[in-house]
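SEQUENCE-TO-STRUCTURE ENTRY
===========================

Backbone structure tokens: a row of integers, each naming the local backbone shape at its residue.

Task: work out the structure tokens from the sequence, keeping to the layout shown below.
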Amino acid sequence: MHINNYIGAFICACALGFALIYLQGELNLDPCPLCVVDRIILVLMALVFLLAQIPDPKSKIRKGLAIINVLLAGLGIFFASRHVYIQHQPATEIADCGADFWYMLDRFPLLDTLKFVLEGSGECGKISWTFMGQSIPVWTLILFIILSFFTIIEIRAALSAKHEVK
């Protein structure tokens, strides 16, 4: 049993709960397309963290799942960084409000939807909530950086378990 996986899954669950229950439920802040992508990545990371607990600690599956989570964390860092960048652009530089993420995904292929999401829109550039002077995308970026450390620790643990077997 590796506590890092449980901690990683717990962090993902807390972040998702905060977004769904408080930001969306209490404050009525609907997620912009980039926020939806961040949430999807968090769900996937939580699932991979939990799946990594199933195999034998010395297995290649554990290392593979940790690598998948590093890639997901990197993707999260990429999307959150893009979101922070969009929020720091002048309002005249950002496109008007665009379509909802799920609408775009329903109407366009995945790669086109991601292209539209990365271009950003008015709702992605809007800062609707802050904590300690930082917006949601900044905190999401910090979250993905923290989660990447947990995944790197898990990879190191998987590699050291492999060397102990020999």
Observations:
- Strands lie at 130-131, 134-135.
